[in-house]
Each structure stands twice: as C-alpha cells, then as structure tokens.
Design a protein that fits this description.
With about 180 residues, this protein is of the alpha+beta class. The protein has a single domain, classed as NADH Oxidase. It has 6 helices and 5 strands. Strands 1, 2, 3, 4 and 5 form a 5-stranded antiparallel sheet that branches. The longest helix is centred in the middle third of the chain and has 21 residues. The model has no long low-confidence stretch (mean pLDDT about 95).
Length: about 180
C-alpha cells in the first residue's frame, strides 16, 4: 500500500454520492459494520437518539422513491438504511440536537460505506413535511420517531473522481469578514 492510499483524508475526499448501482447484495455482516460505524458518531450528551430502519425489499424501496422526490436512485439500490431520530431520546428532547446527532451518524455511515467499497447516496427526508409524513406511514414509525435521511446503498456502478470543495471565501479568521492568512 502506498503512502497516498494510507492517507485517511482520501476516505473523505473519495467519498462521493453514488446514484448508479451494479447488481449485488450487501451481506448482513457488512450491514452490521455500517450500523456500528453510524452509531460511533458523536452525540449530544451521549443520548444516541438515532434509530435505523434497514430496507431491502425492492417493493418497499420503490415506495420510498415515491415518497422522496430526490430518491430515484433507491429504485436500483440493493438496500437503504433510513436514519431516524427519537425525540424522546434526544438531549433535552430538542430537535436541533437530534438533527445534529443523526447527521453525524449519517456521515459516518456514508464514510463506512465508501471505506467498504460500497456506493451510497444521502437522500434528505426532514424537513419536508410531506416526505416525513409519507416515510413515517410507510415504515410505521412511532409518533416520536422522525425520519431524517434515507441512505441508498449498493455495489457502485459509477466511480466519480475524488475531490474537495474547499473554498477559502467560506473561511473567516477570528471574526466574520476577515480572511485567514
């Protein structure tokens, strides 16, 4: 393994949204690893309000497509993991903490998928009231559980180049309006 392959930042820069999938199932052991990685995310006061629904049924994946305007790739994905948050478990039962915790778990899931050679794409559910309602009904989620995102997963059928979207104009030094160095 060369030094470039060992650079941990390559995992981040190489992670790209994959919307085209090749045929192939994802083994249960791999799904467990993905969920372990998601649950290793930081959480406000270690409340871990995330909950996950693993969806493998092709009919259910197609129903998710109908519920999520940006989720067309779910129709050809091997599976999806729907990241949800339990308001009763969130720090101070605050939506903002729940969203931050579930977003961190979703990013860990995406990085783990890339690291394991899978393709993945984050599809937002929250804050679209229509999408939240449809996904809650479809997955029969209890009242305090809010669907935050659906992650399409499968064998990658495309290989976008690694990249960074660094923009120095987005960085301020000490105060707003001051550019670094």
């Amino acid at each position: 393994m060369n030094t470039d392959q060992m650079n941990p930042l390559n995992l981040i820069f190489g992670r790209r949204s994959i919307r085209v999938y090749s045929p192939g199932a994802i083994p249960d052991a791999t799904v467990t690893k993905l969920l372990e990685a998601a649950m290793a995310a930081p959480s406000a006061m270690t409340k871990d309000p995330w909950r996950f629904v693993v969806v493998r049924d092709s009919g259910m994946l197609k129903q998710l497509v109908a519920a999520l305007p940006g989720g067309s790739m779910l129709a050809t994905a091997a599976m999806a993991i729907v990241v949800c948050g339990d308001m009763e478990a969130a720090f101070e039962r605050h939506l903002s903490y729940l969203l931050q915790d579930c977003s961190a778990a979703t990013e860990n899931l995406l990085l783990a998928a890339h690291g394991l050679g899978l393709g993945a794409c984050w599809v937002g559910v929250h804050p679209s009231e229509d999408s939240v309602r449809k996904v809650k009904e479809l997955l029969k989620l209890p009242a305090p559980v809010i669907p935050i995102a659906a992650v399409a997963l499968g064998q990658p059928g495309e290989a976008p180049e690694p990249r960074t979207r660094y923009n120095a104009a987005s960085v301020h030094s000490e105060q707003w309006g001051s550019q670094p160095g």
